[in-house]
Amino acid sequence: MPAFHDYVRGLTNTVPDGYAEPGMRLYRHLVYLGASQMLEAAYPALRSTLDEPDWRELIEAFVRSSRWQSHYYGDLTDEFLAFLEEQAG
Fold first, then answer.
1. What are the residue boundaries of the Putative DNA-binding domain, all occurrences included (predicted)?
2. CA–CA separation, 23 vs 38, rounded Å?
3. Domain residues of the chain, as ranges?
4. How many CB atoms lie under 10 A from the CB of residue 67?
């Protein structure tokens, strides 16, 4: 399943064998959307300082590079803070 996860997280644009590109694009979008909505709700002040392209770039970078392993979006907030600290470091 690494190829599936790599595609969904945006680490590659190669669709894994056995999957259709439209479905994989949908999975990628849903992961981004879920992360974006959860983090926007948790950090409204941060979100208000960024325009849409900058926010999207930040969330996409987070999804690509985070070590987030949980199946629950609610666990994203701590991982996002660690990501921001690492980026600032």
1. 3-84
2. 22
3. 2-88
4. 7
Who's near 28: CB < 8 A, 6+ residues apart? 7, 8, 9, 10
Q: Per-residue pLDDT tens for 3-56? A: 999 999 999 999 999 999 999 999 999 999 999 999 999 999 999 999 999 999
Contact between residue 50 and residue 39 where contact means Cβ atoms under 8 Å apart: no
Please give the structure tokens belonging to residue 68. Answer: 């987030």
User: Which amino acid is located at 14 in the chain?
Assistant: T
Give the predicted TM-score (pTM) of the model: 0.86
- Per residue in 73-87, pLDDT (tens digit) is 778 898 999 999 999
